[in-house]
Structures are given as structure tokens and as C-alpha cells.
Amino acid sequence: MTHTLRDLAAQFADYLQAARGYSPNTVKGYATDIEDLISFCAKHEVVTIEQLTIDQIRDWLYEIDQRGLAKSSMARKSAAVRSFTGWLQKSEITENDIAGRLKSPKSGRSLPKVVSRDSLGDIFEKLAEQATEDNPNGIRNLLSIEFLYATGCRVSELVGLNLEDIDFSRNILRVMGKGAKQRMVPFGAPARQALDRWLQIGRAQLVGEKSGQALLINSRGSRLGVRQVYSLVADLLKDTPTGVAGPHTLRHSAATHLLDGGADLRAVQELLGHASLGTTQIYTHVSVERLKEGYAKAHPRA
Fold it and tell me: Exactly one of 178, 183, 192, 290 is catalytic; which is it?
């Protein structure tokens, strides 16, 4: 019995979503990378898994490299294909893991962008001015940025929040992270003030039949979307030294500022929902680089 690559790719996507609990965005990323391989193979009349070899996968990666893709993108595509062929073997569709010996290029890890405290102060001041009683969207925008920075949550986690996810007595959010893992994250007084104002004034003006239990809703009463938050953050950051960046920059900033202030690395790991402490340690490098920059500018014998 032959198995077409496209059919197997669809089954693999279902497995990632159902068995592994991956988010729709993660599943889409895997599917896009594997579709790239399938399209390459189709040009060479390779359409079934029985025809696929490690050499063809390497040829595909070579072609990608010629496109000038970043090493991080190359590494991601390699990882996606290894995951796919590993699943094929575990599912007993193939006897061997076709890409098991595939080595992906090491990606140079650049330090994440961080917004300065002064720039954030200016941003919050601007948002507060716009958060008037006759501008519910402005009140919501202030809360969105407060939560992204106060909790370090991902944008998908932010827009997925429901009213029942808030512990008002302790100022804690129940966040659904990657792999359907829940974590509890605290937030401070400014975020609480923005939350109360949103619930009492802003959300009440926008709520409708489609709102349900969604915490953040748009002007049509539907759950706020990821793209809307991306546009908001990009617009707010474009005139700062950081430049145009997405919501993840506020997550980076929250982690870095916590470590700058003396927070424990493992506490920051728990806050961000990182499975590995090594992932969180990148922010210690950011703090060290910031220290070195400050030293170079200020010390007379730097």
C-alpha cells in the first residue's frame, strides 16, 4: 500500500493538534514547512512516502539555502521534517526514520529586542490619555498593553483570556500556554486599575451577542484578534528606539526588566511558561549586554 505525502502530512497535522495539543499557529507552521518539502518533491515526481529519501530532503534544504533564508528558518524547517518522519516511523508507516540522520544548521541566536523603561513610560502615558470614557477601544488598548507587559504573556494567551480566568481577589490570571498547559501569573496595581476600568466602562459599551466570556472584545463585540494586537503594538513602538516590533517584544521586556530588578531566574521561567530554564537564560545575556553598554558609556576608563 502506498501513502501519498500530502495525505500523510494532513494526518500529521491532525496528530499535532489532537495528540500533542499544539496551538493552531504551531500546527500551521509545521504544515507550511512540510508543504514546502512536498512541493519540491512533486517537481521531481516524488509523491509517495515510499519514494522519499534522505538525499531528496537534503536537496530540498540546499535549494532553500540558495533562496537566502536565515539559518533560523533553515533550522526550523529541518526540525519540522524530522518531527514528521519520526512520527511516520512511530506510526509504523515507515520502517526507518528517513530524516533521523538529518543535521540542521545551527542558528545564530540574536538577543531579543527590549523596550526601555522610559519608552514604556511614554507609551503608557499616551495610552492613558486615549483611554477616555467615550473611547472604549482606548480603554481596551491600555489594558492589553498593561497585561502583555505586566504578565509577560504571549499575544495568543492574551486574546484567549476569558472572564473566569481572572482571580480578582489575588490579582492573578490563569493563562493557557503552549501544549495546553495552564499557569498562574500575577499582575500589579496599574494593570488592575486598567482591568477595572475596562470591565466597568469599556467592555460594557462594546459587549454583544458574540462576546461570550471573552475578556477582550473588539468594536463589533467579538473576541479581540491577534492581528489587532500586533497592529497596536507595532504602531506604539515605531517611534521608539526599538523600532517596529510585535507583542513578543513586551514579553522580552518584562522578563529583562524583572531580571534587572533582581528577580529569580526560575521565577521568571515560571512566569513566562518556559519548559526549559535554558530558554529563559537568554534574558540574562540581555541584562549583561545592557550592563556592558551602560558601563562603556559612563565609566571614564571603559
Answer: 178
